[in-house]
Amino acid sequence: MVKGNIGIVGCGAISHIYITNLINMFDNTNVYAICDLDDLKTKAVSEKYGINNIMTFDEMLKDEKIDLILNLTTPNAHYSICKATLLAGKHAYVEKPLSLTYEQANELVSIATSKNLLLGSAPDTFLGAAITKCQQLISDGYIGEPIATTAYMMCHGHESWHPSPDFYYQPGGGPMFDMGPYYLTALINLLGPVNQVMGMTKKTFKKRTITSKEKNGEIIDVNVMTHVNGLMSFENGAIGNIIMSFDVWGHHLPCIEIHGTKGSLQVPDPNGFDGEILLKTEQDDFKKIDNPLPYKENSRGIGVSELINCIEKGTIPKCDGHKAAHVVELMESFHKSAIEKKAIIINSTF
Fold first, then answer.
1. CB 125, CB 184: distance < 8 Å
2. Which end of the chain is more exposed for a tag (fewer CB within 10 A), N or C?
3. What is the pLDDT of residues 331-347, one digit of tens each?
């Protein structure tokens, strides 16, 4: 097994599960080097995981031993880091979202294509046991022809638990750009591309008070829409509804349901790799589906491992940049539709 050398940019909270899995879960990944603007973070990660190569980003770009750069920076830096990576001739994989605008996302895809490089993007949760099983059930015809879907992620924001939640309420944040990638990526993998959307948005609270320990009591100015309701028309004819909100105190709605001509499927939380799958057919009420498939635990990094396999085999990864760019266009278009008060035609596909 050939191992791919990975340079990781960004040693924040999400880096720990990635590094743990890339070291222990996958046999084709080698965490070769790390970098972060905060020297204390790089030192702590280096000591915790035994990663001796601490570099600057420029040094990573010039190091011929690095095959792929894993971009775990905050969303506003995703585009610039990925662009520099691709222009330096290295493969790139980035945390969600791929970028903050579809124009940026499309440019990254074009650069990767022109240089014959692979561009991958989180989320990779749809490669886990739960959504893979749901894909099989739909493909095997258990619900017939899909006709409709609903998706809900509603909470009261991240300021109660995140150590530094400010960026969630600035451009590039908000519920759609933060959590939308999980739900939309799951939906397009289950139902295919979307060709048209409409959206309505709302900002209920203009300021937020942080209650997590690190910045308790600090006030955040909210500069994004925090409740987004979107309608989607899929290329296969199905119609979908999605609500992403940081304004709701609680709800009992399912994460995702998909309805077909012969039955309905309840899909677990797409922010995880496992969960209860419920199937309703013409003959029976909702029943739990047994799922023997692997990757039920937190397997973040499986998309990186898959991309390295694709580098070796010359194939296209499932966490492909085209899909990620499609998701960015959808998210951007929900907001655009709300402003322009009209349906938006989606140009991208995969």
1. no
2. N
3. 999 999 999 999 999 99
